[in-house]
Amino acid sequence: MLLATLLFLLLSPCHLLAISCNFETDFCEWEQNASNVLQWIRDNGHDEKLPYHGPKYDHTLNGKGFYLFVNNTSAEVKDQRARLTSFPQTSTSANQCFSFWYHMYGPQIGTLSLKVLQQGQNEELLWTRTGTHGNEWRRGFHTIPPQNKHFQLIFEATLISSTGDISIDDVNVVGGECEAQGMCSFEANSCQYTSTGMQRWERLPGDPKNSSNRPITDHTTETTHGHFMVADTSLGVLPINQALIMFSPVQDLSDTGVCLQFWFQMNGEIPGTLNIYVEEGTQEKRKVWRARVDQGLTWSLGRVNIRTAQSWKLIFEAIGGGATMSHIAIDDVTLHHTECPRVGTCDFELDPCGWKNVLNPKLDSKDWDWNNGQTPSYFKGPEVDHTLRTSQGHYMFVDLKALNNGDTAWFLSEHLPPTRGSCLAFCYHVNISKLLMHGALKVFRYHADQEPVIWEAKDSQSAEWRCANITVESSVVFQVGFKAVKSDIEEVGSVAIDDVVYNPGINCHGVKTDEVFSGYSHAAGIAAGVMILLAVIAFLIVGIVYWVKKTRISLPGSTSGSSRQFGFENLFYRSQN
Known about the structure:
By secondary structure, the chain is mainly beta. The chain folds into four domains: 2-178, Jelly Rolls (Sandwich), CATH 2.60.120.200; 202-336, Jelly Rolls, CATH 2.60.120; 356-503, Jelly Rolls; 522-577. It has helices spanning 2-11, 14-17, 523-553; strands at residues 30-31, 39-43, 67-71, 80-86, 96-118, 124-130, 138-144, 151-175, 183-184, 202-205, 227-232, 243-247, 258-267, 273-280, 286-291, 300-306, 312-319, 327-336, 356-357, 369-372, 394-399, 408-412, 419-432, 441-446, 453-456, 466-474, 479-485, 493-503. Strands 1, 2, 3, 4, 5, 6, 7 and 8 form an eight-stranded antiparallel sheet that branches. The two termini are 43 Å apart. Mean pLDDT is 83; it is low at 4-15 and 516-577.
């Protein structure tokens, strides 16, 4: 692999290498239109003339070097774009891996995209990310396919406000194809997920007409123009019990195992079945996950731990259920090299788990962010976390100075099943300079645009982490939400949360409340619970019939000599956790 890379570097035209750049001395062979309102600025994070705009540290030298970030010079920043264009490249006949590092951090930013412009053609979107990704440099990459004409690569940043930054560093081109993407939102393309046959999985945008054969909005952007992969399981398209197959690209062996996390939607009276298999090399595929319940237009979270002995790939299988109009859709597939977290539970050391910011501007206006006390930041949170009690530990927080008066920031859990009482435990840090009449941190239960507050922080001036327990009840599927609120222009400080634990079916007094559905993480669990319940009923009926027969054979006064047996053994089952 190293030899191939060196040969590629030696034989490639010099201008192709010129787009590799760490921005330590200049822009290299990247340029922009000087007349644009938004500009890419080269900075090291320490220019006092540019406060609050770029990260306080670069990626190359971890704090001493330079990077590029988007600088806002206009009061009307919404939907303004900054474009950075490479020097024109000659045509290519082989794949090239284009790699870069990006920093997207702040309570309200926008979108970073990578595009390719081939001579005489329209621009093509290759890669994109939206919203905050925490105070950390992250690697982005995409395989540039062979180009039969001269072409240019383009970084495009679209801002929706000035409270945050979009930055890039360490742009690099190497020969050969990039590794498989560990996260795919399907916004730019299918990430090499493939489907074959007359009928197949398709990458489509949302359906504003709500025709029921695909979702109205995607999960990533929560808009009708966001994309997903969907299998139309309507009877006129997919006969009952017929299957549509989608393959992932080949994944490398992981010694620690992998947590597969994805969002899915199954809509229709009988939408069919969604199966997920793992296929290792030439071995037979094995089923690792299943769901077959109509959940309407709700995007639900699915997770499963995967361990393999060699390279492998995923197989998504949608089976027709016979409904007139129905669909099964997949979005935001991620592979983490760690164990999957429990439902609604997260210590935020690696990422937000199944919790997410709300992207719908009708609900909130700012985002929660992921940070620790050690990493330099313009936005200030606690100096230490609650999990590790150190400055290296991570948490979710909101810096109130980044909010305007009346702004709110929502942070929602995955969808949770109905419960007669489940315990939500969490730790919080509220440190605000002004004593408040109303809590700056609230917990609410969210369903169908209703958000009743079930808890709020009464203390607003504390440098210590505190913890709380709340028993949550709901007769319908719901989400738990944390809300940061700025109700006074003079409020300065931050609110933060850490170590969220959700115990389904057990209230905060340790009493078990839900006999069948406790501990289920998705619709598959509910379906399994229903099947278990039906099995129990069937065994009860069989037991009753058996008891009746026995009492008829061994009546009082019988001379058979056998003792009578009344009733039947109790049947037990254990719900999944």
